[in-house]
Amino acid sequence: MTGWTATALGTLDTHDADGLYRITGLCLHDDRSEEGDGVYAYWLVPGETYGVHHDGVTWTVAGGAWTELGHTYRLLRDGQPAVAVPMLHGDEPLDRDYAYITHYGPECWELWRLN
Fold first, then answer.
1. Residue 53 belongs to what H/E stretch?
2. Which residues make Cβ contacts (< 8 Å) with residue 14, sequence separation at least 6?
3. Which residue from 110, 42, 39 is spatially nearest to 78, judged by alpha carbons?
4. pLDDT, tens digit, 9 for 90 and up, residues 16-38
5. Which of 28, 52, 56, 67 is nearest to 111 (CA)?
6. Burial class for 103, CB neighbours closer than 10 Å (0-12, 13-18, 19+)
7. CA 56 – CA 109 distance, rounded (Å)
8. Cα R_g (the chain), whole angstroms
9. Residues 45, 63: contact at Cβ < 8 Å?
10. Is residue 23 within a helix (H) or strand (E), and if so which, with residue range?
11. pLDDT at residue 2 in the model
12. Which helix (H) or strand (E) holds 100?
């Protein structure tokens, strides 16, 4: 088995509110939410690392202390499955052959592709 390497893709386009961050235009949807509509706009917490991978249906996000075991958090854009992530340099298309991680770097949220 070989180890993963990570390639930096750049800075995510984010907004913050009260210490939580959102990726511009994206949200998470939790099908199993018992509160409200299960849509989370501000879900990125500094100090946490989030994995993004395609589960054969849509792009999902895992990680973070606030997520619940057994729940699937799907990445949405305008109510539809996301296929790209907004970055400061423009949209970064997501490739189903790879998984991704995002974490707060020295001054911003970064997206990395796992190879």
1. strand 49-54
2. 21, 22, 23, 24, 44, 108, 109
3. 39
4. 999 999 999 999 999 877 666 78
5. 52
6. middle
7. 26
8. 14
9. no
10. strand 20-23
11. 58
12. strand 99-104
Please give the Cα distance from 113 to 95 (Å, whole number).
9
pLDDT above 50 for 108: yes
Joined together, the tokens standing for residue 34 give: 């018992």
Instruction: Please tell me what DSSP assigns to residue 17.
Output: E
The reported pLDDT for the residue numbered 1 is 45
Tell me the per-residue pLDDT of 46-93, one tens digit each, with 9 for 90 and over.
999 999 999 999 999 999 888 888 899 999 999 999 999 999 999 999
pTM value?
0.90
CA geometry: angle 97, 75, 111, nearest 5 deg: 60
For residue 9, the tally of other CB atoms under 10 A from its CB is 16
